[in-house]
Prior knowledge:
Elements: E1 20-22, E2 49-58, E3 64-71, E4 77-81, E5 87-93, E6 99-101, H1 109-114, E7 121-123, E8 129-130, E9 134-137, E10 140-143, E11 152-153, E12 166-171, E13 175-184, E14 195-204, E15 208-217, E16 221-222, E17 226-228, E18 243-245, E19 250-252, E20 265-266, E21 278-279, H2 289-294, E22 298-302, E23 312-318, E24 324-330, E25 334-338, E26 347-349, E27 352-354, E28 361-365, E29 380-381, E30 387-397
Antiparallel strand pairs: 1-2, 2-3, 3-4, 4-5, 5-6, 7-17, 8-11, 9-10, 12-13, 13-14, 14-15, 15-30, 16-29, 18-21, 18-23, 19-20, 19-22, 22-25, 23-24, 24-30, 25-28, 26-27
Amino acid sequence: MNILKRWTPGPLLYGACICLQLTACSPAPAPDTAPTPPSILAGTTAMTLSIQHQSFGQLADGREVSLYKLTNANGVALDVTNYGGIITRLITPDAKGQPADIVLGYDNLAQYVENNPYFGAIIGRYGNRIAGGKFALNGTTYQLATNDGVNHLHGGVQGFDKKLWEAKTFQQEDAVGVVLSLVSPDGDQGYPGNLNVEVTYRLTNSNELQMTFVATTDKTTVVNLTQHSYFNLAGGGDILSHELMIPADRITPVGTGLIPTGELQDVTGTPFDFRSAKAIGRDIAAEDAQLKLGLGYDHNFVLKNSPDQHLILAGRVLEPNSGRVLEVLTDDIAVQFYSGNFLDGTLKGKGQTYGHRSGFCLEPQHFPDAPNQPGFASTVLEPGQTYQSRIVYRFSTQATKE
């Protein structure tokens, strides 16, 4: 893995309990981003940057959990808790300026603790699957917690989505945010090394949620961090009419248990070709072996041939009725597209029942099962190196047809 230069969000003003407001200013362009940043969302009224902090309840052991409410000058609002780093609410206006919550989630802490299919959570130590829940490093085989049949998924039984993170808020001229930090001890879920992790959520006046993931270790280990929000840009219903573009010409096909075969598959002429935007539902029921294995889309799309620090477009989604647009950018080499195949109507939250394919995920990442696949880019982190990755959610709108 490349040693990546550490990024910091600039001068921070921290506080445990804080309510901050400042006058809106002209948005600064995000550096190193490919598409043109959007202007202020159509139909919105200028507001002020703000942060609010409130209690989100207690865990069974009595530890207090907090909720941080961030708002930018254009009416984009983000709620995030330090339990799992979960994004519980994300409000964006539509093309007519009408706000809606575009992420799936729950009403309270108890629901997240009891049964959360990773709604809005930070994923680690390793996003996606590791075959057999084991891998070898320097001649030592490590057995991980298995929580997806015989495989290890999204960090195990007690992954980062179930950890209570330390949190500090900050304000800047054109952004507000939260820095979450965690120490994952040696042996946590079977992984070697004490891993120090820092995740920053930064909501800007250019209508971007900028996220950075930084980690260091004192023993050779593997790391693959991501964010697992489920989106529905209509604010409800299914996501099959959402129009998706992913600029990837290959996927990593899977076998039993959705473990990669180690090959790369050309998407040309297959349901996985999203290089030109199309409705998510257009080909989802096609006769295709990969779709049958995933019960729909649950696959890793290849964005780069090798790791580098350049931020690129991983996906663009338009909800045609509302005009809401989500762009996901990353410096990672791949993105997992998941079409909500396992949502079945049993989960309810925020006044909604989450039916089949009522949300989609775009999860930037390194390849699944890379520790066991010598042909995949390495996810090994050595002492003295710094792991870093970036994800940006960019929100905008486009005119709708009357």
